[in-house]
Amino acid sequence: MDHHQLEEGTQLALDYTKLQKVAECDEGLVPAVAQDADTGEVLIVGYANELALKTTIDQGMATFWSTSRDELWIKGKTSGDYLEIVEVCVNCEQNSLLYRVRPKGAGACHTKGTNGSARSGCYYRVLEDGSLSFRKGME
Amino acid sequence: MDHHQLEEGTQLALDYTKLQKVAECDEGLVPAVAQDADTGEVLIVGYANELALKTTIDQGMATFWSTSRDELWIKGKTSGDYLEIVEVCVNCEQNSLLYRVRPKGAGACHTKGTNGSARSGCYYRVLEDGSLSFRKGME
Hints:
Number of strands of chain A: 8
Strand order of the largest sheet of chain A: 2-1-6-5
Oligomer: homodimer
Distance between the termini of chain A: 20 Å
Mean pLDDT of chain A: 95
């Protein structure tokens, strides 16, 4: 399946090898969920190591460890479309993070909707009867 | 640090080994975020394999793969405090899931607040100046 089909298609093709690949990074990582603090929308799930969390706090911008490029990823820093940190929350067992953010500039997802704008978040498709359909307003 | 300190304390002690442990499960897993579809609250982050996703759909209850017990975990099935599925969303790259749910019964977190009730979700503490404090209403 090519990138376009993966991102814009209706066929479910979950990459269940993802967390194996994340572990192969050889970085200490926890999942980090970014949520729009105003609308409640879950925007993106990334991974954070100690440096990413430190950078998130120091810069006030949601920062992840890019597990594909194996480098620090201050989301949107270059483009200006960053996710301003409102607060950083930690779960009960202290093995994941919730970044509550205010998106600046374009949407948090790298894909574009049919209106040509970046989608606000990555969860724009819903699983129904074994295939994917687009959530209302997120086509 | 004991369990009580980890869950109710104000000291940050993130377990950055979490995803290594998840990978050692030798299951194909993706992160699965459960969000209250009505309030928007991010409740819990778990992990799902193909069986967990299938069970989520078939039973209409948020289901994870327990990476500590290495077994299927239909959250709250025994107690009745389950998370009824409203919809299951998939991200752009198809390597994570978002369960949009309606919590039935007690809160989604296994910890109890100072009022003696289960907390609605796991993200009840916020990181401030290097230590944790309780979010308002989630003490």
